[in-house]
Each structure stands twice: as C-alpha cells, then as structure tokens.
Design brief:
2 copies of one chain form a homodimer. Chain A is 41% helix and 14% strand. With 453 residues, chain A is an alpha/beta fold. Chain A folds into 2 domains: 39-67 and 347-452, Aspartate Aminotransferase, domain 1, CATH 3.90.1150.10; 76-342, Aspartate Aminotransferase, domain 2, CATH 3.40.640. Chain A is globular.
Amino acid sequence: MTGGAVTAMGVAATMTEPSAEPSAAGTKTLRREDLHVSVSDPAAASMNFLNEVAARFPDAVSLAAGRPYDGFYTAGDVDRFLAVFREHLIGRGQSEAQADRTLLQYGRTNGVIGDLIARMLAADEGVDVPPEAVMVTAGCQEAMVIALRGLCAGPDDVVLAVEPCYVGFTGAARILGIDVVPVPEAADGLDPETVLRVAQQVRASGRHPRGLYVVPNFANPSGLSMPVPVRRSLLAAAREADLLILEDDPYGLFGLDDEPRPTLKALDTDQSVIYLGSFAKSVFPGARVGFLVADQAVEDAAGRRSLLAEELSTVKSMLTVNTSPIAQAVVGGMLIESGYSLRAANHDKTEHYRGNLRTLLTALSREFGDDPRIRWNAPEGGFFAVLDVPFAADEAQLEVSARDYGVLWTPMSYFYGAAGGERAIRLSCSALEPSQIEEGVRRLGMLVRDRAS
Amino acid sequence: MTGGAVTAMGVAATMTEPSAEPSAAGTKTLRREDLHVSVSDPAAASMNFLNEVAARFPDAVSLAAGRPYDGFYTAGDVDRFLAVFREHLIGRGQSEAQADRTLLQYGRTNGVIGDLIARMLAADEGVDVPPEAVMVTAGCQEAMVIALRGLCAGPDDVVLAVEPCYVGFTGAARILGIDVVPVPEAADGLDPETVLRVAQQVRASGRHPRGLYVVPNFANPSGLSMPVPVRRSLLAAAREADLLILEDDPYGLFGLDDEPRPTLKALDTDQSVIYLGSFAKSVFPGARVGFLVADQAVEDAAGRRSLLAEELSTVKSMLTVNTSPIAQAVVGGMLIESGYSLRAANHDKTEHYRGNLRTLLTALSREFGDDPRIRWNAPEGGFFAVLDVPFAADEAQLEVSARDYGVLWTPMSYFYGAAGGERAIRLSCSALEPSQIEEGVRRLGMLVRDRAS
C-alpha cells in the first residue's frame, strides 16, 4: 500500500466513449412506478393541486392556507436572537472561540438548547422533564419521523392516529413503511373508548399498536380540542392498551380564552406520552426547529437503563446528524429573551389569531346562521374550523369555487386515509387579515347557497 | 419494510402497573430489543466508545476525530452572510417584507439557493445542471436518506456501496430498512469490474441493485481517490449494470495539488449520477446545509416527465418540510460573497488541510519508513490515511493505546459490514495542529513497535 498512487485499470478499454454531442446522449429516464410510494404521497398531490389552483386564480381569497400570519416577521429578530444566545453561552463560561464552535462546528446530536426548552416547558406547560429527555429536531416533522422510527421495529408494528389526521404524520409513516390505523373522531371529538377498541382490533389481527398520534388542542384539520376529563381518560386508556401517546401541540398557545388546557404530557404521571414540539407558529417556521420529549426509560438485555430521547439520538444522527446550531441559537435566543415563556412572547400573535378565529366564526354565523342545512364547528382556538356542506367538496368543486366564486378552501377528504370528509371543508384563518376572512366567507356563502338550492 | 428487528409479543402482560403515587409511579420502561434496529446502529456504539475513551484520557492526541479544523470559525461570518443573502434577495426585486418572509416563513420544499448552488457547480466543477435539479437538504446526511428512499421502493431493492464505507451511508440505509451490498475496494482502489460482478450477483439472487454509493475523492475512511480513467470506466459500468451512482464528494476541494479531479457528475453524459453535496467542510458544519443534484428524468404511466429532484421533494417534505432558510441564507451569502466559487473561498482551508496531510504522511515515513512490516497508503488529499498494523486493531487495543501511549485512532473494522479491516486503523489529520499530528504519530510508533515485536 505504500506509495499510494493508484494506476488506471484495464477496464478503461471497455468504457463507452461519450458521444460527440453530450446533449444527444441517452437521457436516463426512471419510471415513477419504480420509485418509493412516498414519492407519490397523496398529500403532495393535494398540495400541488391547491397551489396550482391558487396560482391560476390569484384573486381568490384563500381560506385554505394554514401558514402563520406574515406580519410578525422581521429579519432583525434573527440577528438579535443569535447575539442573545451567544451572550448566554459566554455567560455560562464559554470563551468567544468556544461559543463560535458551538454555533458553527458539529455538535451534540440531541441539540444544545434542550435545557432552555425544558425550562420553557416547566414555565408554560407545567411539564417537568430533565433536559436529557429533550431532543431538538429539524422541525416537528423530523420529531415525528424519529419517534415513529424508534418505536416501530418490525412489519407488524403499526401506529394509531386520530382521523381526520394531519397529513404530515401519515406522510412520515409512509416514508418508513409503517401502517397508520385510523381511530375515528366523532363530531364532538375523540372517545377514548374508541382508542381501546381499535387497539384491541389491531392486536387481534396479530399486529402491535406502538403509539397513538393525537393533537389535543385545536387540531389540524378538525379544530377540535379534548376536554380535560377526556384527556385523563385517554391517558388511562393508553395505559390500559399499553400505547404510547404521540402528542402534537403546535396550536396550544392560541386559545380563544386564557383557560388552562393542560397538555397530555402535563397530566402524564407514568411517561405514557412522547411530546412533539413545534416552534413554527410560536417563533417562526424558517428556523425549522422542533423537538421531542421522550422521558420513557429504555432497558437493554443487560439491564442498563437510559432515556428514550437518548436512545433515539442514533436515529437522529443518521437522518440529519444534528439540528443546525445556528437555527437552534435563534430559537434559544428567543426563549432567553422571553424569560422562557412562549406564552408571554406570543402575546401579540395570540391576539391576532384569536381575533381572526372570532372573525371567522362570526362571519360563518352571519352567513349561514339562518340556514338549518349548514353546520360548522366552533373551535375554542387555533387556525381551523370545519364546515359541513350540502355537496361533494372535491377538487372539481374547489376549482369551480376558485374560478367562479373567488374563494379557496381545503377538502376535508384530504385528511382521511380511505373514505371520509367528502362533504366537508376545512377553513383556515391564520394567514389572512380580518377583512379578507369576511370577504372569503361571503363568497363561500354564495357558493354554498348555489350548490344547496 | 425489511430488516426490522423481531418484536417480542405479549408486552402488555409484562408491563409494570403504575403505583398510586405519581412520583413513585411505575416509570414507563421500553425494552431496547423492541425498538427499531437503527436505534442500535453499530456506528453509534463505536462513536460512543471513541468519545468515552477520549473523555477518560483527555491528554491523548486524537488521530480519530475527522471533524473540520476549529480555527476557521467566527460567528461574525454568520451575520455577514445573512446580510449578503438578504441584499441579494432585495437586489432581485424582493421587498424588505418579502425578503423577511423568504427567511422566516415556510418556503419552497427544495430550497431557495438551488440557483446559487448550480452556479457554484458550474464554476468549480464544470457541472452543468438546471437549478430545478438541485434540492437543498438538512446536511448531506438527509440527501442520502432522500435519495435512498426515493430509489428503493420494495423489499428487493438494494443499494451497493464501496467497502470500507462511510458509516453515515450504511446508517441512512438502516433507518429505511434497505440492504447495503458491499463492493470490496482493493488496496489500490475500486475496480469497476467488481461493481459489475456484484451487481450481477445481486440480480441473480432476485434483487434489484438501484444504486452504488461511492466517494471518488479522498474517501472516508480509505483516503483513496479514483484516477480519471477509472471514473470513466465506472460510469460505463454503471450504464451497463443500469445502476445510478450516488456520488458523495465532501473532500474534493482538499487535494494535495491543484490537479483537476473531475467529479463523476462532471463526466456524466447521461444522468447516471446523483451528486450528494456537503458544505460541512467548505463552509461550516453548523449550517447543516447540504444538497443533492438529481437531473434524471422521471416518467409516469401517462408519459408526464419531471426531474428526479422534483419528484423527491415529496420525500423531503415528509422528512423535514424544507431546509431552514436561515441556514440556507448563511450558505447562500457565502456563495455570493465568494463569486460562486467554493474553491476560491476555501483557499485558506485547503492550505491548512494540505499542510496537515503532508505533515501526517511525512511523520509516517519518519516513524515507519525503515520498518518493512508496516504499510500505509498515501492519499492525494483529504482528511484521512490508513495504516496497516501488525496486530488486531480492536477496541481493547484502542483503549490500551489511549491509556498507555496517549494516542487515539479509529479501528478500520468500523467501516465494514461483516469482516474486514481488523488489522488496520484510520488516521485523521483534519482537526489538529501540525505539532499534534507529529506527536500523535510518534506515540503511535511506540505502540506499533511494542505490539509488532
């Protein structure tokens, strides 16, 4: 091996010469059907359709877009949060050079702001977990992928999810080839007895339900929240069914009132809950920072114990190595500046989203209150409400709505695996000004009345 | 999904019941054997062992750490690059508010600096691809996961990888349950005929080889590079075997000389190559920005055509939604400031790494040049070299080396799936000062002579 340099091989003679004109060379073509099923995730097709319709009818009011309101973003925040976090590192004894390394070098797989997140969870949510139980992720989406990957080991391991379900969760499971078994939600919310029944059916079929995905506060898409007694029953059901709960709570700060809505994790006395956290709405989406809390104990064959979050770090390292410490620093700076209270820091955003949801619900009452055939739900917070409509709310109808009535919405059928939601639409109010919401609902009223008559 | 660990049955019956007192409540305990096999990725165990030994013997010189040199990091760069990118957006017609939204709001799944990366690839590598063929990822690690996920659809789809192999690639495949079939590399490098032979064997066994992972420049761990004629032969072999090449090139800028070493993608006339890009060494790891170039055509059953990078965006959206635009902006600002030439921007880093590798190779010659029993290779660039040693280079020996000789290295066996590399070690020179390299090799000499005698 000494001397290193490798000589050319005899095989060189067998190579095909590139043709004179590279542009005329055979273009490698793959068949879409040979690619993995996740490439054809139906949510992507739905999103593409929505975007395409929105682009063709730019004057349509979009009651479809569920993104945060744009008005809160100033890039100056980024510089300031970065500086605050860097000062924090130096205040904790790091030299300038060490702080630079923390921000710019490879770092701890599970992240460098787990302690700040644990403080925030204690202050805002009454959740008491050690920093080592927190893993910082590339957005909440990666947290879902990591939790699913860790929990589901074999082909018989499946996960339950309340249906209608956020498409990001079913998409994450699809990437990993994990089956999602729906737990149907009633019009007034989830019944824990249904969870028990579905878990039992799954076990009877020889499969293992490893977790249950649920959004307890103002869910996307249903807007529904779980009353506190139901949360307690759900935790009891999870214990009974030996299910871990995967709790996703991106909208919890945005209730219409200040009534406390304890997270399942706050009520969790025996580590039945893996909490999936997002900063996309409470800080901003561009940080792409989320987290998971997994304080469950893991025991190996030799009796050694560790925390699930620590065990999952291997999965994290093989997905994205670690979450950009620059992005973590932005969120960390925000947490420090707010005294570790996202609730306090989000006062203005909460007011905005409350106002928008009130505007939506008032407009729906004004528009449809006299029509007994039209029903909608009344979420207690969040970005979404659901309107039952007296017609098939499919993509053809959506296109008519955009073209002839100037209003966009999301078919609820997008959030069901098989059948479901065919005559219902999701209305989003997060990204709009109140006047746009009112105009959107007015246009929706025309569509609905034309179709209902 | 294949490759999952076997799941034990009847777990519910064996669960500990929670006790009456919440604080004393039965701690939810999962069995490690019930978690996915990727949780127990051997690379993580190896890394943990190395870190643990390094922590116990802090005075040991680490010829194990392959991370970039710390001396190039200043957090001020982050602010400046962010500002440069923001100015760039405004220069291209975005308002201040639009630029803020680009940085902070949800954005394009495949990223917002694909055009800048395409310009860089043209300037530095002579690679001519449309911006739409570029997907920005959360580090190169995610690019591997996305490419693997898209290409491998069923349980019979496997991927080939040159062995010894970077553990991040085998780890990515493990997460997805994709089998990696090794293509053994000879001491003087990869023989494309071996690729053909292995691909044939795989097909004969009823499986489909969908790609070949290869690092053509100064590979981790072998340090080897492919001569240009071999690159051309490999491309011909890939065409013959109907294999896509997954080309990973994190070290290409750091050759000992300025000789051009065209990437496989630069020589690729028929889209046989998916290029996996990293900025971890050329900008900094903390950005966690990488990319893939996939300009292959994908055709669906109806004859509609798109680029593979566009098709893979669905996978990306379900893994991490999009790459933090703040992190993208940092890299984008760096590209703009350097006139789209990473080669130019990395002049100082290239000098550093060249100097370090020369120091390592000179020290090896000085230490072992008179001993015909000791051989090592002579990489033409990069961070690594391989030393064959006259003893079993296992973890027990590594611990002895750290404790009694004050030097750390990486067992080459870490980079083999089954057998291989038992009497060889990887030496890294990237993170050290030249004097540390010399001292490390001196200590290594004592270990090797003691064991060889």
